[in-house]
Specification:
It holds the Pfam family PASTA. The protein is low in regular secondary structure. It has two helices and five strands.
């Protein structure tokens, strides 16, 4: 998969169409900024699968975009304008997981392709993630870990 980060969606989307048969999935890189209906001039901040990853004709490609003049967030789904409401009243973006990560110091198979920004969401199995309403999870999103991404396409619990 080539790197599309930094490119305008018009160019990146056209290149993706040559690689895969499915339509490219696009979303705003900020959870509180809606994607404009005309987003051809928006820039790519994040992509799944990651640059350098193998891609097949039937792969799903997701691009997270920002409006012209806006910086990319540190992680996909970040908030551009923090709420002025007290943090205690804020609703979490992802339901709380029903399981806890291992406490034996062992590896949890963490996300190898994202920022690893300290997400507290952890799902032992895809069934747990589905029960919490968090599946599918994309690389860089809370709860994603490569152990749940069986085909290593950047989308965990998608099948």
């Amino acid at each position: 998969m080539p790197s599309f980060v930094g490119q305008k969606f018009a160019d990146a989307g056209a290149a993706v169409k040559k690689l895969v048969s499915k339509p490219v999935e696009v979303r705003s890189a900020y959870s509180d900024v809606p994607l404009a209906s005309d987003h051809a001039g928006w820039a790519v901040c994040f992509q799944t699968p990651a640059a350098g990853a193998p891609v097949e004709q039937a792969s799903t490609v997701e691009l997270s975009l920002v409006a012209p003049g806006r910086p990319c967030p540190d992680k996909a789904g970040a908030v551009l304008v923090p709420s002025k409401a007290p943090a205690a009243s804020a609703t979490p973006a992802v339901p709380k997981p029903k399981t806890s990560p291992p406490t034996d110091g062992g590896s949890t198979g963490g996300d190898t392709g994202g920022s690893g920004a300290g997400s507290s969401a952890y799902y032992k199995t895809c069934a747990d993630a589905r029960a919490a309403g968090a599946a599918p999870m994309r690389r860089g999103q809370p709860g994603y870990r490569s152990a749940l991404d069986k085909d290593q396409d950047g989308i965990a619990c998608d099948k």
